[in-house]
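Box 3.1 A note on notation
Throughout this textbook, protein chains are presented in two layers. The first layer is the amino acid sequence; the second is a token string describing backbone geometry. Keep the layers aligned when reading.
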Amino acid sequence: MIDEAHVVRALAARAIVPDASQRHAIAALMDLLSSTTMQRQRSGAVQAAQGVYCYGLPGRGKSLVVDTVFELAACTKRRIHFHEFLREMNRRLVNEPRGDDRLGSVSRQWLDGIALLCFDEFHVHDIADAFLIGRFLDVALELGTRIVLTSNYAPRDLLPNPEYHERFEPTIERLEQHFTVVHFDGARDYRFSAEPAQRPRFFAPLDAATHDQLQRIFLQYEGEDALCAQTLSAAGRPLHAQAAGASLLWANFEALCIASRSHLDYLDLAERWQGLIVDQLETHWLATPHTLQRFVWLVDIFYDRKRALFIASDQPIAAALNGLEGAHDLSRTLSRLAEMQSRAYPNPLEGVAV
């Protein structure tokens, strides 16, 4: 059985001293995982929280705290990014026989055997996703599954589109009724204060020196034979790559984010390669909302899977993104890009250098 002291020690090993909101979340998570809470849930004698909803600005330690508790929890558990969850649910729905409650049936199958479920970067921007997550949460609550959500949004700010928000309010009310809601309101973004990586991972401008650096990176992890252009597949769509080895993919921004793609493409790439070189990023392209949103998805998914990311752009990428509009959760992307350039961010390619 873990307690708050276990979690605080684990965070201390990462040089983190929990602030007030983080301690509030740790206490709520310990209560959620306690046997007393589970007994109250089974008996129905007292209405016990069945989940913890952690929200706040990017980089305030939401995922850090939740992941630390998740690693220590001794139960059947699963942690999943929201994009990956949607992909899995939609794949199951395609194969589910017709019936009165296909979504409920698929939700029960998906949740089977899971005592603790952690959703990272929970968000609802689309009405179709809203219906899916609403029914899924209903089933999870019925089954008694313990749920932990991290989000940049307070429950009341989910599905903000006024055309659809009212239709999602019953789900918001269930979140507020059954979850302990913790606001991570610390002033510090931990990602921006991290020590830079020993070797740069993002490069500007797009000149011969940058190209040479990218080629050296590719050859560090892949052999000379892999250094040739080829056409690959990403979620069933063709993708032209400058080079592709066993662990590292090198492709131009135009092929990755200007071409018509979805988060499914990036999930596929992150599952097949440990690292990605994004080359020839002309930052004026980011002013196009669809292009910007694809780039946000790419960063989110590669960050969540802890994949290596190298970017070559005509000007520093953070400066180009500051002040842009047209994509959801852009502040989170900036925060994550800062961490991906730090020593704290793991490089999964380190063990595969040739």
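The CA atoms of residues 11 and 17 lie 7 Å apart. The longest helix spans residues 127-143.
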